[in-house]
């Protein structure tokens, strides 16, 4: 009988000019629509284990706790998405966080994240997916551990206010498109099989 093998998917939202967020803009740049939110809800029901770094854990666990309060300032859609994260299996990689962790269903791993994920892929089944954690995503991709690279591209350019440039520090990566769809006539899902490459291919001979 073959050993279980988990699939790793990097999952990111991004502006058209490559930022993960922007100062002064609401979540999802205020461009989430009913089709996208319905898809998020369906994705949240799947048996994924979510991976993140310490900074993302601190931010998202705090937001999830705040969203569960009656007096939170989140919209109904944002609140539902954030509170739903509490029930999902999660793994946080950190040498500074200590157990017990306050956010439910969260496992703490203090070992090197790349080697830990390599072992998780070998010993677990199902799908491992990322939440934010841009440096973690970059390290896992560079190590050749990512099976799927999925973006939802929002139709906005935040050249002046954008924060967290996603692709800075990446290696060269060839991408094979395996799925695409449009949400609400404006946001585009793109899912790829990534292959880290040494650089440009040889020039074609005429």
From TrEMBL:
GO biological process: riboflavin biosynthetic process
Every Bacterial bifunctional deaminase-reductase C-terminal domain range: 7-186
Gene3D superfamilies: Dihydrofolate Reductase, subunit A
Family annotation (InterPro entries): DHFR-like_dom_sf (IPR024072), RibDG_C (IPR002734), Riboflavin_Biosynth_HTPR (IPR050765)
GO molecular function terms listed in the Swiss-Prot or TrEMBL record: 5-amino-6-(5-phosphoribosylamino)uracil reductase activity
Pfam families to which the protein is assigned, alphabetical: RibD_C
Protein name: Bacterial bifunctional deaminase-reductase C-terminal domain-containing protein
Record organism: Paenarthrobacter aurescens (Arthrobacter aurescens)
């Amino acid at each position: 009988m073959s050993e279980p093998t988990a699939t790793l998917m990097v999952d990111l939202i991004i502006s058209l000019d490559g930022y993960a967020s922007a100062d002064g803009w609401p979540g999802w740049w205020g461009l989430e629509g009913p089709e996208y939110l319905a898809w998020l809800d369906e994705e949240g029901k799947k048996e994924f284990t979510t991976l993140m770094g310490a900074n993302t854990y601190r931010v998202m666990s705090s937001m999830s706790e705040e969203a569960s309060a009656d007096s939170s300032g989140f919209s109904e859609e944002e609140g539902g998405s954030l509170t739903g994260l509490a029930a999902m299996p999660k793994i946080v990689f950190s040498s500074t966080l200590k157990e017990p962790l306050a956010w439910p269903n969260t496992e703490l791993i203090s070992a090197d994240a790349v080697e830990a994920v390599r072992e998780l892929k070998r010993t677990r089944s199902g799908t491992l997916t990322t939440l934010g954690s841009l440096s973690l995503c970059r390290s896992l991709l560079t190590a050749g551990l990512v099976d799927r690279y999925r973006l939802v591209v929002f139709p906005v350019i935040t050249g002046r206010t954008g924060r967290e440039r996603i692709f800075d520090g990446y290696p060269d990566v060839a991408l094979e498109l395996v799925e695409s769809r449009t949400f609400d006539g404006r946001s585009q899902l793109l899912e790829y099989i990534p292959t880290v490459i040494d650089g440009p291919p040889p020039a074609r001979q005429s």
